[in-house]
Amino acid sequence: MSVNAAIQSVIDRLPIPTLLVLPDGSKVGHSDPRLTVHAKTTGALAHLAAGQVGLLGEDYVAGDFDFSGSMRDLMQAAAAILPDTPINQAKAGAFTQLIHRLRSVWRHSIERDAKQIEFHYDLSDDFYALWLDPLRVYSCAYYAEPDFSLAQAQEAKLDLICRKLNLQPGERFLDMGAGWGGLLLWAAEHYGVQATGITLSRNQHAYVNQLIEQKGLSGRVRMELLDYRRLPTNQPFDKMASVGMFEHVGRAQLTDYFARIRGLLRPGGLVMNHGITSGGVDHTQLGAGMGEFIEKYIFPGGELTHISHVLRHLAEGGLEALDIENLRPHYARTLWAWSDALEQNLDEAKRVLEGEQGQRSLRAYRVYLAGCAMGFEHGWISLHQVLAQPSQGGRSDELDYPQDQSYPWRRAYIYGSR
C-alpha cells in the first residue's frame, strides 16, 4: 500500500470528521472537519499512517505535528488509528520487556530516583495549580456521587483512604510520597493522627511545610525531604499510606519495597497502597510508543505492574492483602477533569512555563493527560487500592491480641456514615 493510500485509509476509519494537512500543504479529508491535524514532516506522516501514537506525541512536543480541535476528539481519533491495543503490542515486544526488567534493577537507586522525581514534580507549582483541585491532590479521585466536582471527588478519595485505614486519634501515620500534602493534612485535621509525610520533591517539601505552619499543625504534622529507604524502623507506625508512589519504585524492587513497609509498621498496623497498575499481565509499559513517550517526557523511571504481580510481591514482602478495589473508571474521569482544566487555562499555562523548554513541557502534558484518560477508559491501564497488614507468619508472640482483631472485618466501617 502506498503512503497516500495508507493515509486515506487512516482518514476513512476515523470516527469524527477530520482534515489532514500534509507536509506540502495539500489537504486530505473532510471539508467541514471537527478536528484538523497537521503533519509537518514526512516522519510525522509515517507515524500517523502506522498508528504510532506515542511517536506522534513526540512529534507534537517537537513541533512536527499539530492539531486544532478538542483534546477529546484528538484522543478519539488516536484510539481509532491504533493497529492493535497497546496491551497486545506490548506483548509482541517480549524482548523489549525483558530489557526493561533488566534496566529496572539499576535504574532505581536513591540518587537516581530523586532526580527522576525532581524532573516531574518540580516543574512548577503554579503550573500544577492551574489544573489540579484546590488541595493539589495529584492522584485518582473518588466519585462517590455521580455529580461530584473534581474537588469533591478528591476530598472523597482522601476520606476513603482514611476510612479504609480506620485512622484513630493519636495514631502515628506515615504518608509515603505525600505530594502537596492533601492526605497528610486531611488525616491530621479530620482524624486527629500524628502525621509524617515524606517526599523527594523540594518544591513539594517547601510548600507543605508552609501549609503546616499556616494551619498551626507544627506539633502534630511534619514533612521531610527523604527517601522511604532511609526511614528509620525503630519507631514503627500504626498506619501508612502510599499513594501514587509505587509506580516509581520499579518492578525489580517491589518485594523490597513492600518488605520495607512491613518493617515500618507495627504488628497489626495497616497500610494502603494506592497506585497505577498495568492492564496486561506481562508488560511494564504500553505499546504503540505510548510507554516510551511517558518515559521520555513525563515519568522517567516509571514502571507499571499488573495487580496479580503486585499481590505476589506484597506477599513476598511480608504483607497480607485485606481489601482490594479497582478505581480505574474513577481515574479516567479524574484525568479528563485535569485535561479539561488545563485546556481551559492554556494561555496562563504558556505564561507560567516560559521559554521553548517550558512550551515543550506544556505540549507533553496536554498529550499525557488526555492520552492517559483514554488509556484508563479502554482498560489499558488501571488503578488499584490494596489495604494490607503485616503477615503473622505463624507467630503469636508479636501481638497482645489476635491480629484479626486489629481491623474491622466488614466493609461497612468504610462506606457507612461517620
In short:
The chain is an alpha/beta fold.
Summarize the structure in words.
The protein is an alpha/beta fold and 418 residues long. The protein folds into two domains: 3-83, Nonspecific Lipid-transfer Protein, Chain A, CATH 3.30.1050.10; 102-415, Vaccinia Virus protein VP39 (Rossmann fold, 3-Layer(aba) Sandwich), CATH 3.40.50.150. Helix content is 47%, strand content 17%. The chain contains 18 helices and eleven strands. It has helices at 3-12, 42-50, 53-62, 71-81, 86-92, 94-106, 110-121, 125-129, 150-164, 182-191, 202-214, 254-264, 290-297, 307-316, 328-344, 346-352, 355-378, 412-415, and strands at 18-21, 27-29, 35-39, 65-68, 172-176, 194-199, 221-225, 237-243, 265-278, 319-326, 381-390. Strands 7-6-5-8-9-11-10 form a seven-stranded mixed beta sheet, sandwiched between helices. It has a four-stranded mixed beta sheet with strand order 2-1-3-4. A hairpin with a 5-residue loop joins strand 1 and strand 2. Helix 3 (53-62) runs parallel beside helix 13 and helix 9 (150-164) packs across helix 10. The longest helix has 24 residues, at 355-378. The N and C termini lie far apart (64 Å). 46% of the residues are buried. Mean pLDDT is 85; it is low at 93-109 and 112-121.
Any descriptors?
418 residues; alpha/beta; Nonspecific Lipid-transfer Protein, Chain A; Rossmann fold; 2 domains; 4-stranded mixed β-sheet; 18 helices; elongated; methyltransferase activity; SAM-dependent_MTases_sf; methyltransferase
